[in-house]
Every structure is written in C-alpha cells, then in structure tokens.
C-alpha cells in the first residue's frame, strides 16, 4: 500500500529543495483497517471473522476505534447488495468495470452515510483521503463526487424509496440479503409473519458463546463474567470481551462454540439407542468443536473416532481433543471410509453446506454463495448421509445436522434417507423439551430470532436392519 508523504516532505514531482508545507491528511486507523478487510475479502476471498481480529491485534487500536472498525467492516460487507444498488444509480458505468479498490472504498463511505449516519463531511472526506493514499488522486475525485450524491439522497430509508423496489426485492434490500436467500427463508419458516424478523436477526452482531467441556459451567460463568446459556447445559454466553483471555479457553477445558452447535452434538448423545453403546463417529469432524463436546459427554468406555478428509482440519480436531483418552482422529473421506460397515453405534454427520445459518458471524458469505451452490452441496450431503447409515450398525442412530435452514440441504436430504426401508425417523423436539419452537416436523430447526443461535438443522435417523 502506498503511504502519503509525511507532512513537510517533498511531494511527488516537486523540485528538490522546496518543502510542501500544505497539511497532509492523517489516515484514520479504524477506517483503514475496515478497508483492508473489505479488500482482502474481495481480492483473496478472505474470511472477515478470521482476518479482522488479527488486524486489530497487530495495529493495537484502542477499544473505541476497534469497535468502529468492526462495525464498519462487518456492516459494509453485510450491506453490499444494498450499497451496490445505490451506487449503481450514481456511477456512469457498470460497477464491475471500476477498480475493485475504488468500489470497496465507495461501499465503505456509502455505508457510513446510509446506515451509520456519520456526518456526510466526515464520511466523504475520510474516504477521499483513503482513496488518494491507496489508489491515487484521480479516483479520489470520483469517490468524492459519488459519495456526495449518496449523502444528498438521504439515509437508507430514503434511498429505498428512491430505488422504488417492491415485494421480495424491497425486503432483500432492507435486510441486506440476496433475493434467493429471502425466498429460501420463507420456505424454511413456512410463516410469512416471521420472515422479516428472521432476516433482520442475521444482521445483528452475535454474542460469543462458550462451551464448558472439562470445567464445570458454574466455574466458567464465574471466570468469564458471562451468563449460563438457556438451552445447552454446557453453554455460557458472553456480553463482550476477548474469550482468548480466559484460562479455561487457553487450556482447552472450554472453547468458543455456538449454543446451536452444542445442541447438534448433544442430539447424538441424547438419542435413544437399541443395543450396545461403545463406538461413536464424527464423520465430518473439522474443525473439532462438536467432537470436543462429544468427547466430554460420552459415557465411560465409549471410543470416539473423528474423521475429516482435509489434513489441516483433522489437525484442528486433534487440537480440540488434546487431553482426551480413547479417541482416534483420522484423515478420511466418509464416502471412502477406512472403517467397516456397521462399525459404530452412533454417527454424527455435520455435513459441508452453504453456511447460510451463520450469516451473522460471516457477513460476506451471503454474497459469496449463490443459488447455484445448493444443488451440488445437497448431492454431497445425501451421499455422506447414505454412507453414515452404512457405517452405523442396525439399531444404531445417525444425527444429520447442517448450519443451514435451506430446505434442499435439510428436510430434502433427511427425507431422501428416510425413504429407505431400513431407516426410521426419530423426532428431535422431544429430546430437547427445554427448547421451545424448534420442531420442524419430526426434525429440528434453530433460528437466530427465536433462539439466539445459528440456524442449525437437526435430524435423527435410526437404521432398523
């Protein structure tokens, strides 16, 4: 990145011996950090939830600036569709023809005006300064002109009127979701009255959830200053702060894990079983959160096998299971398994999915995924579930879970497996009487707006013969 000349230094193209005494802008650290996140997401498909904490640690921003950088980065990524709809009316060429750096800077500035209501002069001037430093003086003029037009048009509500969208298109713009996700949520909910609340819950910053694996929850509550989670007996919800500061987290006795993900692991452990209970399998185990909880709650004498086809993810599983006895971690694809059919009593399939259930944690995913991604993932999910049913013995159970509510990845996959004549569906909701509103037929569905968790889907199948 090109840095602006120091104040009093020689500017580009100026004769030696003459000082440039004009004030030069001091770049805003919070805004520069937010831009760097947007740029990395656009240019390298980085994940904001992994990159931003790293940048905040490296740059040592104070609490206020770190909070503003987080709000800017996550907000602008989440609102990209609406921001682009506004910008497209003000730029005299397709947005795709702009320098990607300029487009990200325009998004950053427009978000401040439309959603944060930062005074127009501050939003425009600081973004122009960034543009001049990062891209150059020519594009800075374009950014200045466009952002002043954004500010003249008012806030988000005013721009929604100006864009004259209606129906699902207006709802998509108002809630920062692609239209295909709006349609998928409607189908999954089966209730129009909840649709907007569900979409808006995706836009709220999530709490940090901890799981008490090898430490009493009461002790973790006291150490963290958090509150017991309402659904999982192992969950603690934090109001804020860095969970990495906690001794229990550093030692592996506790970990960061969404409470919905905890319930997905507990589903396998709570399932009624016919016959022996000695061997459990987490078939798509990386990065190891559910394996870690399964290892902690299994009865004495149960051996846990955790597999993942990616070596680096299998290594993360090993780290999550450090200190646990009678566990085995394999680099293995569940569709080409090294284990014999019928080897396990319980099998968990946390299948690869679109990740649409965790949009509040990964704001860029809503624009990175497309409707075309669903069908190949659903095919993979059906294949993995079929192999899981082969891996479990007759009388054993398979829990199929995904971090997505999309019908094609959830109900349709479980229904296809349940159509086999050697499989029966076990109702999920009765296993969690403490969790209201999770029944989706015989399956289970968690929602951010109902449960304060990721939108996890849960299903339970027994192999009958």
From TrEMBL:
Pfam families, per the entry: Methyltr_RsmB-F, NusB
CDD domains associated with the record: AdoMet_MTases
Domain SAM-dependent MTase RsmB/NOP-type: 181-464
Residues that coordinate or bind S-adenosyl-L-methionine: 284-290, 308, 333, 350
Gene3D superfamilies (UniProt xref): NusB-like, Vaccinia Virus protein VP39
Physiological role: May act as RNA methyltransferase.
Annotated segments matching region Disordered: 1-25
Membrane spanning stretches: none
UniProt record, GO biological process: regulation of DNA-templated transcription; RNA methylation
Designated name of the protein: 16S rRNA (Cytosine967-C5)-methyltransferase
Family: Belongs to the class I-like SAM-binding methyltransferase superfamily. RsmB/NOP family.
Record-level Gene Ontology MF annotations: RNA binding; RNA methyltransferase activity
Active site: 403 (nucleophile)
PANTHER family in the record: NOP2 YEAST -RELATED NOL1/NOP2/FMU SUN DOMAIN-CONTAINING, RIBOSOMAL RNA SMALL SUBUNIT METHYLTRANSFERASE B-RELATED
Record keywords, A-Z: Methyltransferase, RNA-binding, S-adenosyl-L-methionine, Transferase
Keyword Amino-acid biosynthesis assigned: no
Annotated organism of origin: Trujillonella endophytica
């Amino acid at each position: 990145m090109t840095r602006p000349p120091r104040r009093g230094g020689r500017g580009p193209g100026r004769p030696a011996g003459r000082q440039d005494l004009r004030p030069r802008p001091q770049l805003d650290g919070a805004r520069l950090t937010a831009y760097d996140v947007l740029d990395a997401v656009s240019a390298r498909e980085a994940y904001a939830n992994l990159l931003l904490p790293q940048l905040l640690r490296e740059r040592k921003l104070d609490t206020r600036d770190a909070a503003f950088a987080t709000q800017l980065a996550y907000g602008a990524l989440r609102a990209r569709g609406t921001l682009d709809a506004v910008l497209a009316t003000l730029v005299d060429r397709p947005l795709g023809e702009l320098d990607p750096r300029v487009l990200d800077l325009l998004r950053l500035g427009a978000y401040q005006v439309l959603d944060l209501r930062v005074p127009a002069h501050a939003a425009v001037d600081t973004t122009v300064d960034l543009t001049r430093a990062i891209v150059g003086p020519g594009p800075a003029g374009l950014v200045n002109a466009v952002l002043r037009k954004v500010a003249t048009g008012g806030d988000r509500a005013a721009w929604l009127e100006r864009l004259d969208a209606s129906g699902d298109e207006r709802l998509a713009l108002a809630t920062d979701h692609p239209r295909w996700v709006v349609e998928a949520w409607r189908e999954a909910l089966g209730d129009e009255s909840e649709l907007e609340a569900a979409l808006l819950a995706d836009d709220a910053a999530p709490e940090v959830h901890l799981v008490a694996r090898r430490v009493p929850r009461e002790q973790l509550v006291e150490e963290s200053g958090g509150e017991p989670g309402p659904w999982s007996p192992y969950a603690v919800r934090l109001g804020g702060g860095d969970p990495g500061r906690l001794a229990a987290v550093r030692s592996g006795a506790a970990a960061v894990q969404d409470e919905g993900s905890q319930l997905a692991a507990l589903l396998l452990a709570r399932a009624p079983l016919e016959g022996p209970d000695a061997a459990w399998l987490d078939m798509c185990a990386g990065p190891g959160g559910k394996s870690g909880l399964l290892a902690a709650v299994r009865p004495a004498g149960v051996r846990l096998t955790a597999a993942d086809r990616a070596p680096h993810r299998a290594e993360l599983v090993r780290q999550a299971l450090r200190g646990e006895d009678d566990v085995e971690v394999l680099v293995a694809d569940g569709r080409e398994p090294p284990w014999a059919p019928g080897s396990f009593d319980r099998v968990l399939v946390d299948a690869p999915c679109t990740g649409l259930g965790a949009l509040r944690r990964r704001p860029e995913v809503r624009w990175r995924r497309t409707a075309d991604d669903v069908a190949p993932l659903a095919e993979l999910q059906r294949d993995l579930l079929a192999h899981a049913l082969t891996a479990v013995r007759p009388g054993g159970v398979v829990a199929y879970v995904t971090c997505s509510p999309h019908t094609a990845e959830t109900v349709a996959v479980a229904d296809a497996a349940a159509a086999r004549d050697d499989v029966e569906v076990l109702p999920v909701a009765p296993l969690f009487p403490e969790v209201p509103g999770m029944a989706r037929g015989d399956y289970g569905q968690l929602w951010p707006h109902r449960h304060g968790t990721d939108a996890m889907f849960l299903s339970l199948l027994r192999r009958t013969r």
